[in-house]
Task: inverse folding
């Protein structure tokens, strides 16, 4: 008996799985046959995807909303597509891309066209992700040049820092004691102490 399944993936930073689930329910995929991973698409070591993979049998059909829900890496997507269609012998339907429907065109030409479309889309998707990351890096570098600070702001320097720093410098107290006196972590005290040394060497 042929069964229909749906696969949904969102990253932990996103909360838009409803859109994908609604699209699957609209084509009568039962809720118990919808597998959801809230995980990055960088690889396929996802618990629900692996459970779905074990569940799928020959002639079943797997529905996904878009190709990037299957994964993010070009080579990984192609490998999983091969496993699903060639080894597991299941059909795949990508709802946002009607050309990616292996139920149609079972002849050689249909399979060839489907594979070509998949490769082009996967390649474009991966390159878009690379471009986004590059634009993000460029934006961060440009912001840094403008003086924008990233990360948590540092705590203000304690009023007694100079005095404690000098005591530590002449080895009257340990670094751990100095940090406690300044109400700082050891790492923060040493970082500021090293900064103070650099300033002193320049002056």
Result:
């Amino acid at each position: 008996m042929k069964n229909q399944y749906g696969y949904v993936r969102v990253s932990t930073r996103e909360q838009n799985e409803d859109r994908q689930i609604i699209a699957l329910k609209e084509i009568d995929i039962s809720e118990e046959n919808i597998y959801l991973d809230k995980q990055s698409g960088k690889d396929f070591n996802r618990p629900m995807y692996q459970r779905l993979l074990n569940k799928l049998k020959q002639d079943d059909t797997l529905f996904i909303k878009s190709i990037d829900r299957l994964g993010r890496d070009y080579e990984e997507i192609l490998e999983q597509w091969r496993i699903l269609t060639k080894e597991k012998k299941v059909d795949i339907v990508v709802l946002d891309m009607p050309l990616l429907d292996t139920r149609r065109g079972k002849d050689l030409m249909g399979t060839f066209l489907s594979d070509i479309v998949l490769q082009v889309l996967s390649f474009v998707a991966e390159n878009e992700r690379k471009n986004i990351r590059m634009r993000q890096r460029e934006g961060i570098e440009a912001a840094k040049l403008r003086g924008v600070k990233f990360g948590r702001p540092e705590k203000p320097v304690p009023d007694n820092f100079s005095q404690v720093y000098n005591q530590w410098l002449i080895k009257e107290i340990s670094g751990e004691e100095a940090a406690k006196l300044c109400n700082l972590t050891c790492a923060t005290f040493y970082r500021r102490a090293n900064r103070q040394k650099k300033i002193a060497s320049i002056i």
Remarks:
- The longest helix spans residues 108-145.
- The longest strand covers residues 4-10.
